[in-house]
Amino acid sequence: MTLRLLTRLFALFGMTLTCVACYGVEYQEYDPSFAASGRVVDEEGNPIQGIRVKLGHETYTDAMGGFYAFGRSQHLEFEDVDGAENGGDFESRTITLEKMGSMEDVGDVTLTRK
């Protein structure tokens, strides 16, 4: 009885290995990603809250103007989506990132008023 049970278990295990060997695992292409952090300020160096920051995924600056963004895009986009509510109506800006696969600190990003 024990021998018969072991034989069946090994047979089942062998079929499982055969399926994995034949079909393998899902193929995934290399997926470059970018990440950036920094602070958004106005011309006087004051932090701007509520600026949309987009790098594939979308986030917004905090009360100190700080942000952390990540995504597949190489273009870090800044857009004032609430108009004058955050202290002025600011121009949009785009920065192209160079470092793929690592976090890039872009420092202070200055947005000018329209």
Verbal overview:
This protein is of the alpha+beta class. The chain has a domain at 34-110: Sandwich (Immunoglobulin-like), CATH 2.60.40. The protein has 1 helix and 7 strands; from the N terminus they run H-E-E-E-E-E-E-E. It has one helix at 2-23, and strands at 34-41, 51-55, 57-60, 66-71, 75-80, 93-96, 103-110. A 4-stranded antiparallel beta sheet has the order 3-2-5-6, with no helix packed on it. Strand 2 and strand 3 form a beta hairpin. It is elongated, with a radius of gyration of 25 Å. It starts with a helix and ends with a strand.
Summarize this structure as a short list of keywords or feature phrases.
four-stranded antiparallel β-sheet; 7 strands; 1 helix; 114 residues; alpha+beta; elongated; Immunoglobulin-like
Quick gist of this model?
The chain has one helix and seven strands. With 114 residues, the chain is α+β, with helices and mostly antiparallel strands.
CATH fold name of the domain at 34-110 = Immunoglobulin-like
User: Can you identify the CATH class of the domain at 34-110?
Assistant: Mainly Beta
DSSP helix fraction:
10-25%
The assigned CATH architecture of the domain at 34-110 is: Sandwich
Average pLDDT number: 82
Shape: elongated
* Total count of helical runs of at least 4 residues: 1
Fraction in beta strands = 35-45%
Query: For the terminal residues, how far apart are their CA atoms?
Result: 84 Å
Spatial ordering of strands, largest sheet: 3-2-5-6
Q: Specify the biggest β-sheet.
A: 4 strands, antiparallel
Low-confidence stretches: none
Provide the CATH superfamily of the domain at 34-110.
Immunoglobulins
Look at the helices and sheets and give the structural class.
alpha+beta
